[in-house]
């Protein structure tokens, strides 16, 4: 998989907050607190990247993916994408009492494919998901692994420029994980961008070349998988050992080392260039005057 210079996703100073009733107040009270699910998130993704979004449960990972996919609106900030992202989350469209075959049709239609496209993809999806003998059984009779394969096969039935996977790879067996990894490689080889959201370091390590660590709604690390996972694994070990002071030290160290990228709109960049040139001209003028005076 080769990373290109084509930018596919831009996230700029994105925040998301929710109004929640104040603790201890009656349900009739109109007083509310603000819960900040995301705080000032910024990053750029490019074609050919497989990016892991890592963090503990409740850190804001799925909220971020939902905003990038367009399913939620950010409270503040901006998201720009080069194509409509495909969020591996067709579960809402599927019905447990329907057969696997019927759910494939339903899921593909929910993703916006035409009836003609759906018809041509049903058998390939059944084959990839290894449901040949179970395709005409109700989905409620499937094991968790069979359901995972089915959902993944539906969501990845056609190549998309931006694929987003939320925890799906952590539920199936090793064979499924290997097949899913090969499937995603085809996306990357076709210059796609893949996001994988998980709190599992092993899942991220298997699939991703870059990791963004989100902790309590903010990015605290963004870099190579090896470098970020080294910090994350140290934090999880100290947390598991009830060494809360040591765990907090890891978090604070990550925050201190993280530098948020500066992302400019075209108009802002043009203004920045003008101001930079004005500063350089003023510097050259003062330097020239200083030399003449000396």
**In order across it, which strands form the biggest sheet?**
5-6-7-3-8-9
| Tertiary shape | globular
The portion of residues assigned to helices is: 40-55%
User: What share of residues are in beta strands?
Assistant: 15-25%
Multimeric status of the protein: single chain
Q: Structurally, how many domains make up the residues?
A: 1
Could you tell me the radius of gyration in angstroms? 23 Å
The string of secondary-structure elements, in order, is EEEHEEHHHEHEHEEHHH
- Residue stretches low in confidence (pLDDT < 50, at least 5 long) are none
What's the CATH C level?
Alpha Beta
CATH superfamily: P-loop containing nucleotide triphosphate hydrolases
Helical element count? Answer: 9
* CATH architecture classification: 3-Layer(aba) Sandwich
Number of strands: 9
Helices and strands: which structural class? alpha/beta
Largest sheet: 6 strands, mixed
CATH topology: Rossmann fold
Quote the distance from N terminus to C terminus: 58 Å
Mean pLDDT: 85
Keywords: ATP-binding, Nucleotide-binding, Transport
Family: Belongs to the ABC transporter superfamily.
Pfam families: ABC_tran
Protein name: ABC transporter ATP-binding protein
Question: Summary?
Answer:
This protein is of the alpha/beta class. The protein is built from nine helices and nine strands. The protein is globular, with a radius of gyration of 23 Å.
Describe the structure.
The protein is an alpha/beta fold. It has a single domain (7-293), classed as 3-Layer(aba) Sandwich (Rossmann fold). The longest helix has 28 residues, at 266-293. The strands form two sheets. It has a six-stranded mixed beta sheet with strand order 5-6-7-3-8-9, with helices on both faces. A three-stranded antiparallel beta sheet has the order 2-1-4, with helices on one face. The protein has helices at residues 61-69, 100-110, 115-128, 144-155, 174-189, 201-207, 225-240, 244-257, 266-293, and strands spanning 7-21, 32-46, 50-54, 76-81, 86-88, 162-166, 193-198, 210-215, 218-224. The mean pLDDT is 85. GO terms for molecular function: ATP binding. Keywords: ATP-binding, Nucleotide-binding, Transport. This is ABC transporter ATP-binding protein. Residues 15-241 form the ABC transporter domain. Belongs to the ABC transporter superfamily.
């Amino acid at each position: 998989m080769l990373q290109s210079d084509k930018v596919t996703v831009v996230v700029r100073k994105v925040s998301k907050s929710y109004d929640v009733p104040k603790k201890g107040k009656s349900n009739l009270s109109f007083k509310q607190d603000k819960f900040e699910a995301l705080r000032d998130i910024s990053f750029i993704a490019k074609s050919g990247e497989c990016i892991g979004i890592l963090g503990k449960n409740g850190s804001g990972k799925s909220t971020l993916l939902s905003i990038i996919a367009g399913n939620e609106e950010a409270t503040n900030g901006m998201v720009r994408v080069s194509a409509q992202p495909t969020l591996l989350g067709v579960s809402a469209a599927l019905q447990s009492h329907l057969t696997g075959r019927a759910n494939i049709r339903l899921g593909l239609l929910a993703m916006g494919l035409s009836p003609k496209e759906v018809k041509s993809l049903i058998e390939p999806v059944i084959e990839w998901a290894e449901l040949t003998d179970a395709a005409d059984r109700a989905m409620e009779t499937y094991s968790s692994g069979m359901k995972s394969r089915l959902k993944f096969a539906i969501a990845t039935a056609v190549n998309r420029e931006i694929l987003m996977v939320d925890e799906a790879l952590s539920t199936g067996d090793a064979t499924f994980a290997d097949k899913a990894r090969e499937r995603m490689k085809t996306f990357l080889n076709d210059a796609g961008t893949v996001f994988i959201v998980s709190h599992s370091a092993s899942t991220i390590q298997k699939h991703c070349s870059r990791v963004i660590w989100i902790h309590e709604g903010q990015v605290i690390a963004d870099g190579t998988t090896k470098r970020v996972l080294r910090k994350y694994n140290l934090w999880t070990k100290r947390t598991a050992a009830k060494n809360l002071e040591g765990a907090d030290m890891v978090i604070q160290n990550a925050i201190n080392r993280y530098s948020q990228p500066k992302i400019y709109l075209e108009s802002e960049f043009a203004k920045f260039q003008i101001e930079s040139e004005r500063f350089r001209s003023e510097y050259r003028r003062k330097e020239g005057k200083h030399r003449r005076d000396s």
